[in-house]
Amino acid sequence: MSGHKLWPWRFDFERRTLTHIKGPVMDVYKPSQLPRYQNVRNRYTRLLADQPAEVSGVICTVRTVAPAVVAVASTTTEPPPKAVPECFMDVLEEWGCLWMWDSIRMTGTDGWLEDSIKEGTLCAVTDGSYIREIAPDLCSAALVLECSKGRGRIICSFPEQSLCANAYRAELLGLMAVHLILLAISRSVKGLTGHVKIFSDCLGALGRVLHLPHSRIPSKCKHADILKNIMINCKKLPFSLEYLHVRAHQDDEANYGELIRPAQLNCWADYAAKTVIWGRMGLDPLPQKPFPLEPITVWVGGHKLTPDTSSELRFWVHRQIAREVFVELKILDADAFDEVAWRQVFNTLHDLPRLFQIWACKQVTNIAATNKREYQIKKRKKIYHDPRCPSCNFAIETCEHVLSCCEAGRVDCLQKSIDSLEVWLEESNTEQVLKECILKFARGRGGTSMVLATVEHGQSYRRMAESQDFIGWRRFMEGMISKEIVEIQREHCGLEDIEITADRWAQGLITKLLEITHGQWLYRNVHVHDKVTGTLATRRNEELKEAILDQLYIEEEGLAEEDKYLLEINLKDLEHTSGVKQHYWLLAIRAARRWQELQAMEERGVAEHDLADEGRASE
């Protein structure tokens, strides 16, 4: 029986004999004749030990009833013997993971593959394709195995959905497919020897496969899953392999008929690989699948984990942590969190400047430096700070209020920012109805639901509207858009000839929304911190004006004759300046009065000293 499991127990129904095979010998068990068990069914006692092994009966398992007494627990028949593969396609089917061979086609005479390998006339040509503008997570490969004597041909093409898709991976995929087919051929024809030429237009991929290590792929090697599959399974073929380079796109310079055969096949493979990607336009993304003979795969979020996709692991770890934090801090509940297009949010934030990331984090988690936050901090130090909004001077200023403040200037700033968003949506070829819904929802400032914004457009947008309303207007303005918004734009990109992908469009939308929210903070900070018209500057000027009036009320008292010019000051300048000159004036007049006071104290001290001297002299 094939397989790694050993079945030492066998039961022969006809002879009512149980055997325990121990390598070259076996123990024989018969129905028990012990007084306690001789009339009990399914009780067996060892009768003979270390007899020459003889395999008979069906596989079984036993359980111990008492010392030297066992019972048959279960039985099963042996599986049928493994079928001998008749051709390499049988081997491919035995391996499973047939997605790579969905389009494989073969023509030719019987036995042409073996004959071509034996005579060294088999030529394998492969090429890959990657079109980032159409499908950033999709690459494809095409291959041709052809006998140079015209006895037969195998052609195949296939796509692969992967987060690490690129042109280099596409080339490696084609080389791996060629090696797997050659391995299947070698297993279907025992003792096959000969020579095969493998052509590719990628020198980097050819060199990598040619110089693969014998035992271990470096841990940080790009596309290690492909290279490891080739290294483990395909580097000990019984026939020799020769890796050759063919220059790409030679049909751009010469007629197809004038090219050598490997160059012609390379041109066909290039076209076939591109056709696979073009054929996927407008269709749902393919699920990523393991390769044939790939023994172990690790999956995170539906994607295969490789050294190239370590960022994918970070994303899912960060997403899980963020989900727990958002629920704990009551930012979003778990269901609303799951509605957000976190993949696009994650990629967007990682492309933004570090300080902008920090601001976004503070805004979302409600720890930005609002007046309420300042009030809470200074309250511990027993210092009063006004928690009200500096614009409307009525509501308590929180991170949420920064977005929803009804002060006219704030609202006007928000609407102008949304006008800028409208221009961007138009320039980015946003789906028309989606654009209108986004703008209505944003301009509603929390008072208009997305469901209400989509009510005129039928049920097709209702799922998106309900999802975004679940997340909320504030979080939408902080960049937390619904996954459904991305999918609507993705479908639009598939139907129209649009250069920007749905994911890049979503990242642009998230950036624009964050910029709008940040613009509200800029307006608020200018209102508070402007050196002339800011609320803090106004408060300082009021305090400065009051101190100046106190000095003017004292008038010339305490001033020396040469310092009385300081009383000439224009208080109206305070309304149009930062008050720096007036502050220096205040320091100057206070210093002049203090100097005069010290002079008077010194004169009094001298006079008292003289009187004391006169008194001692008179005595």
Commentary on this structure:
By secondary structure, this protein is an alpha+beta fold. It has four domains: 9-76, no CATH class; 88-279, Nucleotidyltransferase, domain 5 (2-Layer Sandwich); 329-529, no CATH class; 536-611. It has 21 helices and 14 strands. It has helices at 88-95, 112-119, 167-188, 203-210, 224-234, 261-279, 310-328, 334-339, 342-351, 354-364, 371-380, 399-404, 408-427, 432-443, 450-453, 462-471, 473-477, 483-495, 502-529, 535-554, 580-618, and strands spanning 9-12, 17-22, 25-31, 44-52, 58-66, 69-76, 105-108, 122-129, 138-147, 152-161, 195-200, 240-245, 299-300, 303-304. The strands form three sheets. A six-stranded antiparallel barrel has the order 1-2-3-4-6-5. Strands 7-10-9-8-11-12 form a six-stranded mixed β-sheet. Strand 13 and strand 14 form a beta hairpin. It is elongated and about 140 Å long. 29% of the residues are buried.
Number of strands: 14
Percent of sequence in beta strands = 5-15%
Average pLDDT, all residues: 87
Q: Provide the gyration radius in Å.
A: 42 Å
Number of distinct helices: 21
Structural class: alpha+beta
The shape is elongated
Head-to-tail CA distance between termini: 138 Å
